[in-house]
Each structure stands twice: as structure tokens, then as C-alpha cells.
Specification:
Order of helices and strands: EEEHEEEHHHEHEHEEHEEEEEEEEHEE
Strand content: 35-45%
Shape: globular
Mean pLDDT: 92
Structural class: alpha+beta
Amino acid sequence: MSIEARFNLSKGDFRLNLSLELPGQGVTAIHGPSGSGKTTLLRALAGLEKNPGGLVKVGEHTWQDASVFLPTHKRAVGYVFQEPSLFSQLSVRDNMRYGQRRVPRALRRIEFAEVEEWLGITPLMNRPTSRLSGGERQRVAIARALLGSPSLLLMDEPLASLDSSSKQEILPYLERLHETLSLPIIYVSHSLEEVARLSDHLVQLEAGALRASGPMAALMTRLDLAQLHGEDAEAVIPARVTRHDPEFQLAYLEFPGGEFCVAHPELPVGRDSRLRVLARDVSLTLERQAGTSILNIFPARVEELLEESPGQVLVRLSLNESTLLSRVTLKSAQALELAPGVQVFAQVKAVALLD
């Protein structure tokens, strides 16, 4: 299954003109600067923006083409907005029941009890929504959308209106949905932290056009995508916990380029995780260093360099099938004679666990 979309629509001075083919499972993040067309794309997928001649096909089901245009209420789509827009006069349970009543019993693929458990809503069931925190309200909004048994879930910056504490509260629940649900999720966000933590596939928009589309980890290290690096340029590396060192309270995570050592002794062996490595935390040497406090050192090959100002160079490194970024000074790049193909050692001074 895949999702196909093609749009060429205008709204005032803005024009959305792109063609997409997206995975039929997992989370696809839509990222781009303000005004790039992220929300317009979601609204077009949902049928809220009419686009004669456009295309929306979800698996074998055509929602829109040259001869068909299904209105929103006939599309098997769930939509979570920035603001939850719950019915304040109803309890949490009744808000959720409202979403479920949209679907005949015989067509329900997602059960009430499942959603209640996934999103940790049981303690909230009898509360009026006016007495919920921002994070709790958004969880209820997600639950209501899921109980419509959608074939596609659209989420338009669902954390944008929340404070930092509420965001950290709700992120684990979004991760649980990622792990549990088989339906595709398209997730709009301006936050690269959310993109790195939640998504599998990434779409980068710019001025209503497609700038790039592909696996998230690969796009995050592309030097030609300026919106994705900047000061906090990073690599996201999928890895699996393989063993522990109880004496030093360490866990070891295997990836194609070797094995990371991190201070997370509670991670269960066999767990799949994502590691975040900032470019500023990766230094380069031509020979493996001894007598250093740095535990994570990997042989690597320089693939590409991008000179940044003032006097900075961003280096893309290949570690077998994985990629790291390193930011070094222009002076260091010249002293090491860095160029595509040069063999180096990447010294990772810090690594963060994303999930």
C-alpha cells in the first residue's frame, strides 16, 4: 500500500504544486518553513481544499482524480488540528463516542478500549473537557480521530500550542501510536526534534513545492537541505540494544557502523532505538586516538563538505550504511586536508537517546 497525491492549487498569491508518493505505513513528517504549504497539503489530502484535476489515492481507494472528488466526510481520514476543538459540554467519554459513532459498527477497525489504553485516557473518562490540561485535551482529540477507524491519520502540528512540559507529556503517547498502529500517519511539524523522534519518512517543502522526500535519517544529513541542518545539524541513527555493562552502568547499541556506548543501563536488550548525534559533538582525527575520555570512536570516510560562514565546515561522513555529520573549523578542515574519500576517525563526544 502507498499514498499518491498530486496537487496544483492556488490560494491568493500562494500556489501548491507537487506530486508525492508516500509509504502506506509508519509516520511521514511534513516539514518546511512557515508559508511552505504544510497545512494546505494536509487540507487538500482531507478534501478540505478543492483542487480540480488533483489526485489522492490511498492504497486501492481513490479519493480524488479527474472524475472523482469524495467530500471529507466520505474519506476514511482522521484529522487532528493544532487546537483540539473538543465539545466542551461533553465528557471525555462522550467526545470519544462522538468519533466512534461516525463509523458503522461492522466497519470499526479500532476498538474503544484499545484507544483508551494506548493514550492513557482511563482516569480522564468522566471529566468535562474544560477541566483537562492542554496535553490531555490533545490526547482526547487524537483518540476521537482514531475511533473513526481511519485509513489515514493527519496531524497538523498537534504539539504547537502546548508548553514544553505538556509536549514532553504527550510525546511518549505519540511514540506508542507509532509502534502500535498499522495505519499511515502524516504529521506536520516545524520542530526537527519531533521529526527526528517520531517519523520514518520525511517530506521537505519550500514555497509550495517539493524540496525532498525520502527516509528521514537519510534526509537529515543531506547538506543541500539547509532547513534541516543549520546550527543544530544532526544525524539520527537507528540502533539496537545488544548488551549491558553493569559495572559502569552502560548500554551498548549496535548500528551498521559499529557499536555506541551510552549511559542508559535500563534499556532492555533487543530494543530498537534512535540515537541523535549533533554535528558539533563530532570531532575528526586522521589516526585513532589513545588516552582519551571519548568512548565512541568510529572509522569513517568523508563523503561531502559544505563551507559555512564564518569559518565553519559541515562534513558528511559515511560509516558503512550509516551517516554522521561533523562541524569543524575551516582551519581544521584545511589542516586535516579533508576531501571526499579521505579516511578519518569520528570521535562522538555526546549522544542522545530519542526513544
